[in-house]
Amino acid sequence: MNGSSKQHHRGVGMTSQRSRDRLVRRLQEQGISNPVVLDAIATTPRHLFIDEAMSSHAYENTSLPIGLGQTISQPYIVARMSEALLDGQPWLDKVLEIGTGSGYQAAVLALLCKRVFTVERIEPLLRQARRRFHSLGLHNIFTRYADGQQGWLSQAPFAGIMVTAACPQVPAELLQQLAVGARLVAPVNRPGGLETSTVQQLLVITRTQDGFEQSQLEDVSFVPLLPGLS
């Protein structure tokens, strides 16, 4: 990597480390307390996962469009879901992400997990995310172009599963790919709500020896989890 590439990765001005540190302080004020999650947010150059024209907004706590009707989640939600997935552990062995999108969430998870398996149904987004992972040297991220609702059965069971798109209910295929004692974090439509609703409940589902236990974190807003390929 040449000098200009290194500087681009580090960021300058509104994309600098100072901007990332300010973001981390805001996340702490909002209740994010896991130090390894905060460190991952501080380390990951979010400005490289969005269009350069919007890079000055990279470290604002807001979601941003990434094209093809998709968004990059706001940093608070990335941190909240990561923290919930870890459940106080310093790291996880193998996790599955459904919905690669820009690749930002997977890049954060790559600093918290030994291996990250991520599935995306929109091929142009996945190609772009792969280039970003390669550029950043994130060689512990494994990608797949597939229908995310089916998970990644050949790599199961997973020590954690994160779904980054909203569904009426968590697909049974994903629940069955969760290891006993592991957690799945996903936005799920409100009971009795419309599938087109923009507000969902962020749920944590833990697999036990006897079945599944569920708890609710907070209201969130995600694009819908769609079947098939695009």
Explain what this protein looks like in three dimensions.
With 230 residues, this protein is an alpha/beta fold. The protein has one domain (3-220): 3-Layer(aba) Sandwich (Rossmann fold). 29% of the residues lie in helices and 27% in strands. It is built from 7 helices and 9 strands. The protein has a 7-stranded mixed β-sheet with strand order 5-4-3-6-7-8-9. The longest helix is centred in the N-terminal third of the chain and has 13 residues, at 17-29. The two termini are 33 Å apart.
What descriptors fit this protein?
230 residues; alpha/beta; Rossmann fold; 7-stranded mixed sheet; two-stranded antiparallel sheet; 7 helices; 9 strands; globular; disordered N terminus
Indicate the proportion of strand residues: 25-35%
Q: What is the 3D form?
A: globular
The CATH topology label is Rossmann fold
CATH homologous superfamily designation: Vaccinia Virus protein VP39
Low-confidence stretches: 2-7
The largest beta-sheet arranges its strands as: 5-4-3-6-7-8-9
Concise overview:
With 230 residues, the chain is α/β, with parallel strands linked by helices.
